[in-house]
Amino acid sequence: MPLNQIKWDNGQSLFEADVDEAVGELLNRIGEENGGCRPDIALFHEEGSVVIVEFKAPGVSLDEHDNDLMEYATLLAAKSNGRLKKFYGYLIGDTINAIRLRGYNRLPGENGFFSTDDVKEPKSQATLGQLYSELLFYGDVVDRARKRIGVYRDRLKLPPL
Question: Which residue has better confidence, 116 or 30?
Answer without folding.
Answer: 116
